[in-house]
User: Fold these one by one.
Assistant:
Number 1:
Amino acid sequence: MTDTASDVFAALAHPTRRQILQDLKDGELAAGEIAARFQATGPTISRHLGVLRQAGLVTERRDANRILYSLAGERLALSVGDFLSTVCPEQIVLRQVRKRSTGQPAETQA
């Protein structure tokens, strides 16, 4: 897993990967269940899952001969939230309020 926002946003760039994340919001799914929801081939969906896993947006676990995928929602929320807080004035204010409430020094605005 990598820790760069670029990997997260690259993973989010493809509509199939965004749909996979939406499908996982209600819980864990087997790779075959995910693939059955798309017209793409199994290997194509597997590559999409690999991109999501590499970006840290999904986790996988083995159950006998099945691979089960889960949404790593906190990672997604933190990555997108961190980006938004740097470009959205309202988010900048909210970040400063959060820092003050946790005792961290607030950033100064230019």
Note: The mean pLDDT is 85.
Number 2:
Amino acid sequence: MFDNILVVCVGNICRSPIGERYLKQRLPNKNIASAGLASKKSHLEGKPADSMAQKVAQENGIDLTGHQSQQLTSQLCAQYDLILVMEKGHLNALTDIAPEARGKAMLFGQWIGQKDIPDPYKQSKEAFDFAYQLIEQAADAWAKKL
């Protein structure tokens, strides 16, 4: 039913690329991509994953090579059956961009107590490690549900 999954955060350089690649490992038969709510506004479109995100992902067996940030659009949302956002506030931001997609959007942390996954951008390695642990727990829970 949910064969096309889009993972969304703000800039599409930290949380969503890790979430995307981790889910791809767990659900190899699904089409999974990621995008950012403010990639364009933040001048991050086309940029690779954040260097600390790459380091933490690599330490956990996830390769972010080749990732390029892309802006979330209503056209992009139309291509996916399920859209997973990192924070509750992202649901409103998603609705501003693509109101028609609200019904297929849920929290990435839905099955781990509806937890927000905090943005580690420009923070310590510990912040990235913490975000990674939540992403891993949430993705494992989604893999069981899907």
Note: The mean pLDDT is 97.
